[in-house]
């Protein structure tokens, strides 16, 4: 069976974890945490990158930082993971879902402005498959209406929009280092802070609401409780695992891109024949080969293809159930406008295996997909 995902492993993870243990510093914000944070800052240009225990927690931190309170509204797509919405629902906000673009599966930037009310506090674009939303338009809308922008760039590490790293364009950006992502620490994430003036408060919220980070830098002689926060620091052991991948990030990206291009080349004849649709990458977007998906005619055909691939030793999956159709989505949110594409496109989409080291196994996947359509 060809697995859908195999967590990335480079060979240095055990060595670095052992080093962290040997230093008797495993609680976080040690040497490996600093290395990972500096790598993120260097490769993205953000003012500050703070490792977190998950992308979920990075998004929760962003909600605290932009001042979400009960009664506020936050605009986002319904086609996303639950964490995108939960982070704001936990603060008492109403989540306002708008439709997606069928080409990129990202939020339709042309529908955002009509969904804005006097209660709207933020826009949360989700960069699906590491392919950027139309950020110029989104940022222009946010500026005119004095709204914050929190980028859900969980899938977008090393992806770009017009040369800018995803996660650095909005006020805050949220990365994931879950085991299904290009670079992993098992469970983990990062919050990117665009503006230097917001860094100190972000550190306080991340450190249980205390100014402990300033204390360890020798800036103050004791630390104290400053505001509401939580424990968002990952273990140094997790950071050590992640560092083994970040230091060879280019190799991992090149390997994944080769598999992504292999899929596109091998399946383009099916697209030309009108059997499937392949991912669309806008000209201004540089992607990171996070996933490769295809779209078939309808839900019935997708389920038949999934079953066929399983029978032929290929583990493929569908993706999100639109949040507005879920029990929690109905409780904490509402859909603005017409659901023209969100549900329909989500039912057509099927994700093929994609991971570091997939290599020639991609050809077996391609052959299985072709066999189904014969």
What distinguishing features does this structure have?
374 residues, alpha/beta, Aspartate Aminotransferase, domain 2, Aspartate Aminotransferase, domain 1, eight-stranded mixed sheet, 13 helices, 38% helix, globular
What does this structure look like?
The protein is globular. An 8-stranded mixed β-sheet has the order 1-9-8-5-4-2-3-12, sandwiched between helices. It has a 3-stranded antiparallel β-sheet with strand order 7-6-10, with no helix packed on it. It has a two-stranded antiparallel sheet with strand order 11-13. It has helices at residues 13-22, 31-44, 55-65, 82-89, 135-145, 199-206, 212-216, 236-246, 249-272, 299-311, 327-332, 342-348, 361-373, and strands at residues 48-52, 73-77, 94-98, 120-123, 148-152, 160-161, 164-165, 172-176, 189-193, 285-286, 292-295, 333-335, 349-352. It has 2 domains: 13-246, Aspartate Aminotransferase, domain 2, CATH 3.40.640; 249-373, Alpha-Beta Complex (Aspartate Aminotransferase, domain 1), CATH 3.90.1150.10. Helix 2 (31-44) crosses helix 8, helix 3 runs parallel beside helix 4 and helix 9 runs parallel beside helix 13. It is of the alpha/beta class and 374 residues long.
């Amino acid at each position: 069976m060809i697995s859908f995902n195999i967590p990335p492993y480079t060979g240095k993870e055990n060595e670095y974890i052992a080093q962290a243990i040997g230093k008797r510093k495993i609680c976080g914000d040690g040497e490996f945490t600093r290395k990972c944070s500096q790598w993120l800052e260097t490769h993205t240009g953000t003012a500050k990158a703070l490792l977190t225990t998950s992308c979920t927690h990075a998004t929760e931190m962003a909600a605290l930082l932009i001042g979400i309170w009960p009664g506020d509204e936050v605009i986002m797509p319904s086609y996303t993971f639950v964490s995108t919405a939960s982070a704001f629902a936990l603060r008492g906000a109403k989540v306002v879902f708008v439709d997606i673009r069928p080409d990129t599966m990202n939020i339709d930037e042309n529908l955002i402005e009509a969904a804005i009310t006097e209660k709207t506090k933020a826009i949360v674009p989700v960069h699906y498959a590491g392919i950027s939303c139309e950020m110029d338009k989104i940022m222009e809308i946010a500026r005119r209406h004095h709204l914050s922008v929190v980028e859900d760039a969980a899938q977008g590490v090393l992806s770009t929009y017009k040369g800018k790293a995803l996660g650095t364009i909005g006020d805050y950006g949220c990365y994931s280092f879950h085991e299904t992502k290009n670079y992993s620490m098992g469970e983990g994430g990062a919050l990117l802070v665009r503006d230097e003036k917001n860094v100190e408060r972000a550190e306080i919220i991340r450190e249980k609401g205390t100014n402990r980070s300033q204390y360890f830098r020798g800036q103050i002689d004791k630390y104290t409780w400053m505001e509401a926060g939580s424990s968002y620091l990952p273990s140094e052991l997790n950071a050590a695992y992640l560092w083994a991948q970040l230091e060879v990030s280019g190799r991992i990206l090149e390997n994944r891109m080769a598999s992504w291009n292999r899929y596109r080349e091998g399946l383009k004849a099916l697209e030309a024949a009108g059997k499937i649709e392949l991912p669309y990458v806008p000209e201004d977007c540089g992607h990171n080969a996070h996933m490769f998906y295809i779209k078939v005619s309808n839900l019935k055909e997708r389920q038949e293809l999934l079953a066929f691939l399983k029978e032929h030793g290929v583990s493929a999956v569908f993706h999100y159930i639109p949040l507005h159709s879920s029990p929690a989505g109905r409780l904490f949110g509402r859909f603005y406008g017409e659901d023209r594409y969100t549900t329909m496109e989500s039912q057509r989409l099927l994700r093929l295996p994609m991971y570091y080291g997939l290599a020639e196994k991609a050809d077996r996947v391609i052959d299985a997909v072709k066999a189904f359509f014969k």
